[in-house]
Amino acid sequence: MGSILQCIECGRQYPTNSLIYTCDTCGGLLDVLHDLDALKATATRALFDARLGSLDAPYDSGVWRYKELVYPDLDPALIVSRPEGNTRLYNVPKLAEWAGVRRLHLKHEGENPTGSFKDRGMTGGVTQARVLGKKRVACASTGNTSASLAAYAALAEIQGIVLFQNKQVALGKLAQAVAYGATCIRVDGDFDRNIQLVRQISEELDIYVLNSVNPFRLEGQKTIMFETIQQLRWEAPDWIVVPGGNLGNSSAFGKGLKELFDLGLIDRMPRLAIIQAEGANPLYEAYKRGFDRMEPMHAETIATAIKIGNPVNYRKAMRTIEWTNGVVEQVTDQEIMDAKALIDAQGIGCEPASACSLAGIRKLTDAGIITKSDRVVGVLTGHVLKDPEATIAYHRSELADITPHYPNTVYDSAASLESLRAVLEGLQEPVQV
Fold first, then answer.
1. How many domains does the chain contain in total?
2. What range does the domain containing 15 cover?
3. Are 271 and 240 spatial neighbours (Cβ–Cβ below 8 Å)?
4. What global pTM score does this model have?
5. pLDDT digits (tens, 9 = 90+) for 366-386
């Protein structure tokens, strides 16, 4: 068989050119399934290694380098790519020591073209919009999705439409959507309400939805795992730790890792830990109850990228935890911002939601779930410049209920040598991990 869409609940199948996001029969989420048996002969380590550093499209992309596992039958002329991916895997021994493990790498998806992992999904989603002949695409967004959609829609020469909530949107992200030319609409509702609205308006006005309910988005995002494993010379780590909001990455990672294992490209499955903010933790609460149900909540957290109370991909994230023998943990805004300050001080930098990974690793190590000898990869999802207001407010001690344990003071000086000398001679020690 070729690639198909399949419902994860009832198993009903659809052609990949179907305009559909959930199952017509039961409403379940859809997977893009590939014929892995047929791909075993071609989708090899040698093939993907040979494409590393390619200067030729589409294989210069860290998504389309793995085209056989993303969209094997696609005409390359339809691909919309910036190109994305090819992000760095940082070895961070000082942060490893702080977190309580010997070996820690941080996979920085903030190094994608628009500054977040969303670009990997958007190249898949906008490419599928082109396959379907769509002229308009839309999303609800806490910020990163809108920036990515706006950029890729502009590249594809189609109209991008983004729905924001009308408060607590990081200006760096809103500025990107405006700059890239999308139609930006501020709605008096939270992210979860905007998701409902974008689905409804898209049905009425023939607009293609590019939130992570779209299975082609997740096909792009799973390549974060492909690339990470390839950068580790095809050796699976013990743990992969990722922030959890709408749970698209969590879902994509589980699918991607299972495909690597089923193809024999890795010899064991890493365990996956999903880290949620304490104020936006419906998956964590469900996990504590044995996944008996998911109760939507009103989300509040400084980590705006994961401020989501009714995650679309809950069922796929459950499946990921099952496939990987994974865990779900929560961290406070205090823990998030302290971990962010330490990542930033290493010269790497990330937006608040990304720091859930490091904060979660330390918490799981303290609990004895991750052991000191484990090899761990934490995923950083967004660039430090996505939310500069939160960064500055932390270091100025201007965030409500958060004490900056690792502040970097900004000093004032007169325009004189004497004043500068006084500042420099009295400096406090720099932030130490």
1. 1
2. 1-33
3. yes
4. 0.96
5. 999 999 999 999 999 999 999
